[in-house]
Amino acid sequence: MNGPVLVINSGSSSIKYQLIDADGGEAIASGLVERIGEPDGVIGHRYRGADSEHRGPIADHAEGLRLAFAMFAEAGMDLASAGIAAVGHRVVHGGEVFYRPTRITADVVAEISRLSALAPLHNPANVVGIESAMRVFPDVPHVAVFDTAFFHTLPAEARTYAIDAAVAAAHGVRRYGFHGTSHEYVSGRVAEVLGRDNAELNQIVLHLGNGASASAIAGGRAMDTSMGLTPLEGLVMGTRSGDIDPGIVMHLRRSADLDVDAIDDLLNRGSGLKGLCGVNDFRELRRLIDGGDGAARLAYDVYIHRLRKYIGAYLVTLGRVDTIAFTAGVGENAVEVRADALAGLEALGIEIDLDRNAAKDRAARVISTDSSRVTVLVVPTNEELAIARAARRFAPDGEGDGPQR
Ligand code: AMP
């Protein structure tokens, strides 16, 4: 019996954590540290179904983690006696360097910091989370699991931007892709649920959360994905624009006199659904649409139009598609998004069963008809479990994972 794995996901102003039994897959305890750096910080902690909360200013990520560890000691389970086998850290950008789970050393931390130029919002927060946790747990393996890793195998034609090749090479400009842990986990679950060999399946995975991305996967290998150098490209998201004409950036610079940080903020935090109609949560969007709000209706239509474009592109990229899977907050819950994304595609062998689609069921399940050539599924993602399993391989009694870079 292995000890549990602590999984830490440090975002720009929040930290998610879970203590996971990586064998059974059960989350023993979990929590969310929010509003770091603001006066009204909050930590919500759950241990075996019981919720507890801490409110008060949280100066920085290091203090956030320290307070979270104090919650473990107070509310359970006490980490000092939990026998933690490993700590898994979600790291957003692995650049060209990291493409598999990697045991964290001082050199690895330095390299993750160096990659901050590619992920200025995320990698610095990941580094603080790693350094804080390593101080608290100096004797267990800490393992970085990279959001970009699964897309390391993208074919050259999918990862290359058609810009000056020397400029691209000098600045690391290429498609990296993100949400890789989720795309890999979900595509693996699709094969499990269907009792099929993953190596034989051509899959489209639609990770639709507040951030959203699509991928085309052939036999377990990622062939294309919608996010690019950064998580800004591709689908319409909660607050991100997804694809736009790059000329818009220059136009705004010149005509609206916005500097690069203001444009960055506009496209990452003030666009997408929120930019179009003021809300980024699909439940609120639905309420607005039901109340006759025209801007919300247009936002929804733009969202679905973009999603269908990517599905069409990946059907052709893969040639033959066996499965389409929806996952993450929107993909798992928004019945109408799934129905509208795949409406009218019977000629392409895609037939949604509307009753199956509308069924309230938390488990991974098929929502296409029995006669549909393409099997459509809803598959709950579980990035924390995937990270825990990857990290546990580095525990003293784990399987190990060969070369780490
Ligand atoms: P994620 O980033 O995967 O946590 O997804 C978060 C998003 O999922 C939220 O912003 C909502 O838009 C959406 N979401 C969560 N629950 C529901 C629900 N019950 N119905 C529709 N959308 C939901």
From TrEMBL:
Statement: the UniProt record of this protein carries the keyword Transit peptide: no
Biological pathway: Metabolic intermediate biosynthesis; acetyl-CoA biosynthesis; acetyl-CoA from acetate: step 1/2
Native organism taxonomy: Bacteria, Bacillati, Actinomycetota, Actinomycetes, Mycobacteriales
Compartment(s) where it occurs, according to its Swiss-Prot or TrEMBL record: Cytoplasm
GO molecular function: acetate kinase activity; ATP binding; magnesium ion binding
Catalytic activity: acetate + ATP = acetyl phosphate + ADP
Entry's cofactor comment: Mg(2+). Can also accept Mn(2+).
Positions bearing the site annotation: Transition state stabilizer: H179, R240
Stretches assigned to coiled coil: none
NCBIfam families: ackA
Protein family membership: Belongs to the acetokinase family.
EC number(s) from the headed UniProt entry: 2.7.2.1
Active site positions: D147 (proton donor/acceptor)
GO cellular component labels: cytoplasm
Protein name as catalogued: Acetate kinase
Binding locations of Mg(2+): N9, E383
Complex formation: Homodimer.
PROSITE patterns: ACETATE_KINASE_1 (PS01075), ACETATE_KINASE_2 (PS01076)
Positions of substrate binding: R90
GO biological process: acetate metabolic process; acetyl-CoA biosynthetic process
